[in-house]
TrEMBL record:
InterPro entries: Pyridox_Oxase_N, Split_barrel_FMN-bd. Residues 20-96 form the Pyridoxamine 5'-phosphate oxidase N-terminal domain. It holds the Pfam family PNPOx_N. Gene3D superfamilies: Electron Transport, Fmn-binding Protein, Chain A. This is Pyridoxamine 5'-phosphate oxidase N-terminal domain-containing protein. Signal peptide: none annotated.
């Protein structure tokens, strides 16, 4: 689990409180492309599994064939008492997993702040 702190792993294990993520890939012309994605944490492999509908049929899947790197942002605002933003930013190698029909993001460079605490049962 290169690059992740204990708090970040706990956040990912807890499912990030249902937060949507945004994935950035490099398109065929070398430019950025950002799309919302669903995600889960695979504790055994130490990767973020990026899913959605028919992922192998998407542009992001095709982009990763040429440039197998990606950046992911999972963020939100917590609390009812004002502005309390939080975020987890992950960059790393992105692997196309044919068996799962999903993308596996290997955390290499990670930044976070203000992550919501994981529920007590995790």
């Amino acid at each position: 689990m290169t690059g992740l702190s204990a708090a970040e792993v706990a956040f990912l294990r807890a499912g990030g409180r249902g937060a949507l993520a945004r994935l950035a890939t490099v398109d065929g012309e070398g430019g950025p492309r950002v799309v919302p994605v669903g995600w889960t944490w695979d504790d055994e492999l130490g990767v973020i599994v990026l899913g959605g509908r028919n992922v192998p049929g998407t542009a992001r899947w095709r982009h990763l064939a040429r440039h197998p790197v990606a950046a992911l942002t999972i963020d939100g605002v917590q609390g009812d008492d004002g502005w309390a933003p939080w975020a987890l930013l992950v960059r790393g190698r992105a692997e196309r997993d044919e068996r799962r029909g999903a993308i596996l993001l290997h955390p290499e460079r990670v930044t976070s702040w203000g992550l919501p605490p994981a529920p007590a049962d995790h």
